[in-house]
Amino acid sequence: MTGAAEALVSIPDGALVIDGDRITYCGPFDDVEAGDWEVGGFEVFDHRPGFLLPGFVDTHVHFPQTFAGDAYGGGQLLEWLDACIFPSETLLADPSFAATAAVAFCDRRIAAGTTQAMVFGSAFPHAQDALFAETWRRGLRVVSGRGVQTTGPDSAQALVTSEGDALRLVSEEIEKWHAADTGDVGTALLHVAVVPRFSLSVTRETLKNLGELYDSVRDRGVYFHSHLNENDRPGSGEVATTKDAYQVDTYLDTYDGKFMPGSAVGGKSLLGRRSILAHAVHCQDTELARMAETGTSISHCPTSQQFLGSGTMPWKRTVAAGVNIAIGSDYGGGDEFLLTRVLGDAFKVHMSEAGEDAVSLHPAELLFTGTLAGARALDMEDRIGNFDVGKEADFVVVDPAEWPPLAGLLEHGVQSEDPELARDQTLFRLLMAMREPSITEVYVQGRRLH
Prior knowledge:
15 strands, TIM Barrel, nine-stranded parallel beta sheet, 16 helices, alpha/beta, Urease, subunit C, domain 1, 2 domains, four-stranded antiparallel beta sheet
């Protein structure tokens, strides 16, 4: 993160050469020998004066909330879940509705240029089947797991299962869908995660059972995903309620196998390099240190944190702790699928942090957070996230002419005479002013998606 500005590369008249699903060249167009196109049988696509960017990686988005965005619940997180989200997710009990949601979810992802995503899944197995099948059909990448709930309020009862069924259904999903497309986790587009909704939606028994299951499948490349320290309203927020319910020192302890009273060890840890925890707004220093130690990543969701009044993840303190920070739309707590809009919110909220905590994020840091940091969080940095030769060809084509406000800013906005600053200004305008119509083509593994 701290070296993003120095690592940023802009090639004004560049070429991206793809052979099959791999990038074989990225550099100036004039340095590509004309004979290479003929020998390789390459077809040339000219996108000037547009831009090529790596595909966006959304590390926290809710599939069963596809039609639950902008829901008004008359309160913050816990009230909103009870009034809006649990009832909305219950609608996916209807297989036809679940199939409709899967199509719409993939449509939204492609329109936003989100080529890879950590997707918080539905409680219903047929809905997860619809999600994986449609994702596979469309050629997208996904990491997803059914949202596990073994306890909850009356509004969530349709989503709640027994302890035995919770473990069985997660195991079945792993066996059915993990690397189902290729049979090899190193090449697959489809991956499965173990996903308890959050600690208040499960029990100590659930955490113990999921910890043992996860420990048995870690070496198969299975992921872990959940929420952490999102909302801490005095007296009744999620953080305080969780710590009180489990009688633990920190919220993170519940995912670290320390879910017994006094943060005593009760089972296996769920943390690690394929573990992503969303929000992390109200972390103690010990929690950040433990995430850094285990290689656990944070999915930063500034849009939903504003929507639900959850606060702002402290950027400087989190970066200083050494934790990898990727971006998450958190749709439908967030109301934007387009990750550049979420990155824009990140810029604004961190510029507005109090006193010396305020920071003006560099455009390269924003781009990194929405691309390579997400690949790192998913342990796929060797496959996707930038245009390094040998990586799989995931990218988006941005044509400013398809969104005139963006075109106007790029054409008429004041630019510095310093080439490096001018580059940064262009990238900043591109990220802040981009909208879905300007994303004209989306590629995964060199295949154009429709």
